[in-house]
């Protein structure tokens, strides 16, 4: 998911496939615009842009 906006309380708005949802970013160091791997509403890893492009080209990066 791509972080749209950081919110107070270690939360953020994140977008994938046109849907925006509130997630926790307590476990990662990320900024608006970063791509993160999300599980159960919790960002668990920040994805490097080069890795995301390679995965997307191979069809390996899901919307969430």
Structure description:
The chain is mostly beta strands. Helix content is 14%, strand content 45%. The protein is built from 1 helix and 5 strands. A 3-stranded antiparallel β-sheet has the order 1-2-3, with no helix packed on it. A two-stranded antiparallel ribbon has the order 4-5. It is globular and about 25 Å long.
Mean pLDDT value: 86
- Side-by-side strand order of the widest sheet: 1-2-3
Provide the gyration radius in Å.
11 Å
The total strand number stands at: 5
Helix tally equals 1
- Share of helix, binned: 10-25%
Q: In whole angstroms, how far apart are the ends? A: 6 Å
Class derived from helix and strand content: mainly beta
Beta-strand content estimate: over 45%
What does the overall shape look like?
A: globular
Query: Main sheet, how many strands, which sense, barrel?
Result: 3 strands, antiparallel
How do the SSEs run, as a string of H and E?
Answer: EEEEEH
| Low-confidence sequence ranges | none
Task: Give the helix/strand layout.
Layout: E1 2-7, E2 11-16, E3 19-24, E4 35-39, E5 42-47, H1 49-57
Antiparallel strand pairs: 1-2, 2-3, 4-5
Using brief descriptors, characterize the structure shown.
two-stranded antiparallel sheet, 1 helix, 45% strand, single chain, mainly beta, 14% helix, 64 residues, 5 strands, three-stranded antiparallel beta sheet
